[in-house]
Amino acid sequence: MxxxxxxxxGLVCGAVLFAAGFYYNPFVGQSTLSALSVSEVELSSLxxxxxxxxxxxxxxxxxxxxxxxxxxxxxxxxxxxVDSQLLVTSLLDSRGMxxxxxxxxxxxxxxxxxxxxxxLVNSVWHLYIPGRGTLAxxxxxxxxxxxxxxxxxxxxxxxxxxxGSWSRNMTVGPGQLGTARVTGLGGEFDGxxxxxxxxxxxxxxxxxxGPVSMSGMLMMAISDDTDVRDTSDSE
Amino acid sequence: xxxxxxxxxxxxxxxxxxxxxxxxxxxxxxxxxxxxxxPNGGNAETFYINLPQDRIFAAKRSEDTTNVFxxxxxxxxxxxxxxxxxxxxxxRNSDDVVVGIAARxxxxxxxxxxxxxxxxxxxxxxxxxxxxxxxxxxxxxxNGLLMAGTREFxxxxxxxxxxxxxxxxxxxxEIAGRLELVTALVGQLGDEE
Lengths: 235, 193
Hints:
The complex is a heterodimer of chains A (235) and B (193).
Chain A: H1 2-23, E1 44-49, E2 57-59, E3 85-92, E4 98-108, E5 120-129, E6 133-142, H2 144-156, E7 161-169, E8 171-173, E9 180-187, E10 193-206, E11 210-220, H3 228-234
Antiparallel strand pairs in A: 1-11, 2-3, 3-4, 4-5, 5-6, 6-8, 6-9, 7-10, 9-10, 10-11
Chain B: H1 2-22, E1 35-37, E2 43-51, E3 55-62, E4 65-69, E5 84-92, E6 98-107, E7 115-122, E8 126-132, E9 141-149, E10 156-165, E11 177-187
Antiparallel strand pairs in B: 1-2, 2-11, 3-4, 3-5, 5-6, 6-7, 7-8, 8-9, 9-10, 10-11
């Protein structure tokens, strides 16, 4: 009997030891510096609030921490959509002025694997920037750091919340350097092929309502006066 | 007894590592693709949107009026968005099963060029970005091109047609009409798929 207890105790200790080493492994997680920010290309940035109540519309399966907004919006409860999220938000330029509208659709990726600390999400953006044109962004994001550094500590906290200062690049692909693919769809961006990185900046999170103070930023390798259509015409 | 404990510890470590390594944490639900092969090559697939029940979101601003759905939604009042219309729907396959989400954005008064575009997102398959012609044909069909695709659609080229079928109205199911999107896609030459 004592051998059985010893074996079970050893199994539990082994599993806990692995979980602790895995969870606190400092060598996994995303960087705060993107390949774009150390390149010489000119960058444009668009920011948005990740707080559901600040968005134009947000919806998911209706059973997640972040509740659909506004209240009467249809939920994505169908089996094919059940883990997906839809966000419609206003985009601000680098001076904080309204720049356009962004629609983001995201779904968990089957490429996710815990062993590699990859909680992956496939997401696409459709951006409309009035006076300039439209863009498509295709990316894979990794939410491991977000879960480990914000969501789990919030669950562990007696106040059911997390406060702090956290900033990470979420984009990990499909570009070789961990960048998103940008395609110009119309206007001055017509024909554009470029790269982007999305980052999150968090200050407060609640287990009851999700992000409380959080913003996202799309950093794109597009200069503020890009006119791809004119450039291609002149070549 | 210590040896048994150490054995258990090692087994626990290996077991936990195996569990983390081999267990698939995401398993998306898939519906069988309803694809038909076209006589001149490529694949055709038809998607449907039952109106109004599949509408998730709608916003249209023209001059001083803004129409939104659902009620309570705050659509920006920027003058730059004058004429802009945006709608988001659930997308069905030919078996009438919801398989994705579709967003349609247009602005006939956009200074950088009027446009009508679609973004189609299928969680288990990928996404498509489509650019449509501004004017539909005489029979009400609006054609467009695949501008970009992701994952399953990344290497494909082709077109799409959009048609509002008012004859599909069905009072029993409160369907006022059906928006039909037919994609006709072909792989690039040399593409292994």
